[in-house]
Protein 1
Amino acid sequence: LALALGGTQASGIALDQQTGAVLASAGVSRRGVPGSTLKPLLLEYALEHGIVRPGTEVYCRRTLHIGGRALPCSHPANQPVFTAESALAQSCNTWFAEMARRFSSPQLEAALQATHLQHHAMNAANVEERQLAVLGLSGVTASPLELARAYRDLLAHLPPDGPVARGLEGSVDYGMANHAAVAGVTILGKTGTASDPGQARTHGWFAGAIPGRVVLVVYVPNSDSGVAAQLAQRFFQAIVPQGQSR
């Protein structure tokens, strides 16, 4: 992990998915808003509790404004209608902003409590506050270790053929986390780019796993999620023997 992150300001952590033991830690751990890496955690809760369905469709115009903030979608424009799986793979902010509308404030508070991430109380949150929280842009913070533990917990009970697992795999195979892909290796992952309140510069996240083996989180200050995913790819390439297939 230290070699994969070498020459950068990034920090990262790798956990044994089976035991939760820390396998490796590198760089100076920092906290930050998690950006879109929060989406799969809240999506699984929403699916389990009937807040959205796998086939819930949302039309995306690629322009989104919440509380005076422009949050345009950066996914390809050739697919304007998203379901849970495709919205996760392509990180459609519009779809997840609609999901946030469907959460009641107490439901969102319960969902965030289930992640064990530090967050502002959401019991009385208005629509915009819920949307920004679901998008991982406000009200929630994480360290690499905390996010890695949240993903390990998610993977422990995630249906392998469900929309969240498929969306996370699609994110790496063809979606927003594609820079982390390693040929012939199944990787579930999600990226996120966000800026902390009052900060102009963004930071980048990658959170994901080689299922059944290792959970990895990479945080890169003053950067974006593409860089975080590239560093994750370096790590995955280093730990997967040549010729290993899915």
Note: The mean pLDDT is 95.
Protein 2
Amino acid sequence: MIRLLLMAWDRLSIYLPIAMMGLMALGTYWLVQNSPTPAAVAAERPVRTAPDYFMKDFSVTTFVEAGRLKSEVFGVSARHYPDTDTLEIDRVRIRSFDEQGRLTTATADRALTNSDATIVELFGNALLIREAQPDKLGTVMPRVEFRGEYLHANTDTDRVKSNKPVELRRGNDVFVGDTMDYDDNTQVMLMQGRVKGQIVQDKAASGKK
């Protein structure tokens, strides 16, 4: 009898590791099936489109790294939008200086600007003026004035555009058109639509009295 029990035990011991592995596998499967599922990854927080701060009767001044004044922005009220890092300004007035120190001023009923006022969109009674000053070669460039209901200006590239009617005055010359793209660096202006122009000849330059 004892001999039979020993033989049975020997056979059982052969299969015992396999049986134990099977039990462990079943236990692991049960734990996986019955464990709570991990919480779903929280959706990314949506970018805030509402203003995150407001200003009243304010002025903002920016400088370049060397300490030179770059721009001054004044307004009756303003709202900052964090999703685009833009400032919407009511009754805006802007003074901006390029690397040569040339002054550009702008006014409008409303404006949208980036953080350092290098890109400005002007809405309603928009007026942008580049004062007469010498260029890099010392030649005095005439005063340039833009008027319209919408102007898009980039002071870094010295470019002014509009998809609405614009009046451009350069010195005594006057041009009007339905759209405009003006590059101050190349002195090239593209107007489309109903374009009209009036060029006033400089009598001193022509030798006439």
Note: Residues 18-32 have pLDDT under 50 and may be disordered.
Protein 3
Amino acid sequence: MRKIVFVFVALVAASVAVAGEFKAGFARVDITPPLGSFMPGYYVDRRAKQVLDPLQINCVAFSDGKEIAIVQQYDTEGISDAVANRLRDAIVKATGVKRDAILVHASHTHDGGFLAQDADHGASATDDGVPSTATDIDRLYSALCVSRAADAAVAAIADLKPARLGVGRSEAKRISFGRRYLMKDGRVLTNPGTNNPDIVKPVGNPPDEQVQVLRIDREGGKPIAVINFQTHPDVVGGETLTADWPGLTRTVFEAATFGDAHALVLNGTQGDVNHCNVMPRPGELNGLRRDFDDVDRGYDHAKHMANVIAAAALTVWMKCAPLEAGDIRFGVENVRVPSQKAKDSDAKNLKWAEDVWALHEKSAKEGVAGGEKDYVTKKYGWTGMELTTEVARAGRIRRLANGPDFFELPITTVAIGKAVAFAGFPGEPFNDIGKAVKKGSPFGLTLLSCLTNGSRGYFPFSDAFREGGYESATSPFGPSVADDLVAGELRLLNRLCK
């Protein structure tokens, strides 16, 4: 068997062009899980009951004739470090591509399959603290995705064709909004609800509405569009499988180009922005319904967002400015950040956290989590997003009670000459992280992606820890994490651009 694998890898490598010739390839495989599968993304145990649209791995391969790089996007909420390692191991084994040249990115749809299992491939808590009741179906699904990851990489390499690059930038307006708000009582709440009279003002800077497009024209093959936008794909909810706005954007864009292009969508720095417009204009609530956590969601609204993003990309698609390709380079910067355990992991808070979590698990077991009969709500009075925030805080305090003082966060970047950089963060960065990295990057185009090669949690700026809200409540990291990551990514980008 080892000899067969070695010969197969050699054949894949032999398909790469001669040194100095830039090529690109594309592949797409289906990873829609079966009905009944566990769906991560909320603090309840959800099981898939309907498929609204297929879930996929979309893969682009790049070659300069010497090195190959792989960028894969998965329609899933998050990929744990353990599963990301398995995915990359499978790609390395199947293709011989170097491990640090592989990016596996979760779009963060909250209506996908379960790829957050532990290193033993068994049931575990998901990255947002949900006690998983994973079944054999979920374990088999994870194994399927590992196999499909290798299939996608092999197919994309087989599709390599001479290519040239271009860049376009546009904007998608009024579909992404900051989700943290100052309330009249002085608190900062995440998603306080539409037309809430207690809202004073939004907290933080305006959202990044930029749409970036990498156009890859290929000799003898369809062009490839890599579309980069940044906001939470938490638009649909329920127990329906959907790729949410990232997948729907692919569908709209490809249809609008008359089927003459492939599309891959990378979700950028989306940690503190989402679709919730708390002060809507007339008509802007069309296609939305009030969900269990007081957040408005709806499939039609996800379609609307896809229309807006695809339209923004289409306005520049035929007029992209050329970029000069070059050698493929890649690297990892391990950023050391403090943990958030010292502040509130004392005995009193730990006792509180254990009580909240025990009540939450009892609610989840009885199927009343998030509703009027939720045991946490009965005791503490929290409802909606405030309930979610306090349960998240309790989970984080429990996890860090005996946790480390510091964490190392690996950020991985793949570069093509001085033209393009794919910068991946292993968690959910706040929107302004992306703004700072794009502004300081030496590359002609810097494409950012959240939840890449792992899923470590939220990366808020220091003011969010002082102000409060869901993101800082659940983050395991200390207040310097965002600044540390910006500095680390810019170090890596400047190193790769030399």
Note: Residues 250 and 261 are 10 Å apart (CA to CA).
